Request: fold
Amino acid sequence: MRVASLIASSTEIVCALGLEGALVARSHECDFPAAVVAGLPAVSRPKLDPHAPSGEIDRQVRALVADALSVYEVDRAALARLRPDVILTQVQCDVCAVSPRDVEAALAGPDGAAWTGATTGAPPRVVSLRPDRLEDVWADVRRVADALGAPARGEALVAELQARLARAAEVAARAVAAAGGRRPRVALLEWLDPLMSAGNWMPELCALAGGDCLFGVAGAHTPSLAWEDLRAADPDVVVALPCGFDLARTEAEAGALARLPGWGDLRAVRAGRVALCDGNALFNRPGPRLVESLEALVEVLHPGASFGHAGVAWRPLAPAGA
Reply:
């Protein structure tokens, strides 16, 4: 079995299943586990500049989408040479990763000539994941395991991840009980310029972490967020986890928040409860490391709780002038 994984989360799922030896190609965003992906060729690339400031990235994405263009390109020639039997992609978000439409274009090519997988001799099987909610992430783990002929491994991995998630949620539940049942009111920010709140699985993680998610709906895409609404809600905690940004990049982009009129007056800012996170590795990536995402969120919402992620997956925003 030869597998091309065109989204970072599916690469992590394949590796968590212990089937990393089947991988022959990855997306440009696949970066974990580093030892596995280092030797795999990247067969996709973005059409925008991922190093541009947040506002410029948003403008580039909107321009591509307005022209009905894909945000990514798939290297058809490389895929044809590698001849995977299975191609893993997603239908959850055209902006976040390579979509089935991109894969179909790569399979057909400009001349319409098809190619077949090296092991099966049949056209590659395209497996599309759709992780809108936590339950969908577990379904995707099973879907990948089934496609790779290892359904038992899929069930075992889901059971393990759910058990770890439950243990982290129990720590949060005890912290809420110790606070007299009060749950902090939380604003989860998945983009900083313009402001967008986190949706999909993040409201569920926030609830499991003992927080009251003020914006975003479980299972729904990231909604735009007006600064006036965030200011009026005046959350107890603000968590910045920009999509695709690691912790250093999130820190570099945090100035967009400080420039908002009245930012310093927010309850969370005054209390020093603004957390900057590695959204790329954890919160934005619907795979096995959503467990670590929950653990980190528990640390953010409940000072005193520790899973070892502070300073690595997240850190508090330094006070102005510090």
